[in-house]
Amino acid sequence: MDDKVWTPTRQSNATRAFMSVLRLRSLAWGWVDAPALARWWVIDSTCDIDVQMLALHYDQMLNKPEVAFLVAQPGLLPRPAWTLFKIPVKSSLIFDWIGRRQFDKRSSPDYPAASVTSGTPWRQGLLRLKRWPNPARYGNTLDLIVACSRLLGAPATYAQVLTWGVAAPLLDRMLQDAFREGLLDISNLSRMPFSRNQSGASAPVTTWPGFNPAQTPADTSRWNLIKQLLGKFSFK
User: Fold this and answer.
1) Which of 28-32, 95-99, 138-142 has the lowest mean pLDDT?
2) Which of 8, 53, 69, 172 gives a 20 to 30 Å CA spacing to 202?
3) Same domain for 161 and 228?
4) Phi first, then psi: what are they for 9, rounded to 5°?
5) Residue 111 lies in a domain
6) What CATH number is given to the structural domain containing 15?
7) Residues 6+ away with beta carbon under 8 Å from 165
8) Assessment of whether the complete model's pTM goes beyond 0.70
9) Number of compact structural domains in the chain
């Protein structure tokens, strides 16, 4: 069932392209005729279908599928748990979606994610992201997208990231996922070199091998960064 897909729009070009990408990952992927038999749904919203009826059917299901909702233009998702894909969909986004959802299933309940109260190692050291998380997973929140971009360029402490305007619950959720999925580097502050600031107090040196400070997004150019990031990640 993990590789079974249902769609009400099987004849659409976007849906067939989506399945072609899935089969690049594994030839085991295939269509099923009954929505209850599939773990994955692919819905092309540009087709003549009753999206509201599909959403109501989804609400009534005990074991809810993962839903890829394909759109021509950005808009609201019929259900928050669905994932928005802008047509034409990039294969890398499909692979990322499948991989994350399969990881989530494997990690629960045998390997549950650490709760914010039971363990937060990211609050104790210098943080740096190895690669982009999926912004759509967190509502494409602008402050979080900017924070992720900065953490890809240079390390920062948890407290520093909070000063960038990211809400603590949202930040904890992203860092928890990144830590669990191996996307987060955490350096022990006690092992970092220290320098003296103007007041004489010691502070960690937040340089990183291969990092060029001139490439770090500055607050003065924040709007340019935001525009670039929105163009790249708004519709994942």
Assistant:
1) 138-142
2) 172
3) yes
4) -130, 50
5) no
6) 3.40.50.2300
7) 143
8) no
9) 2
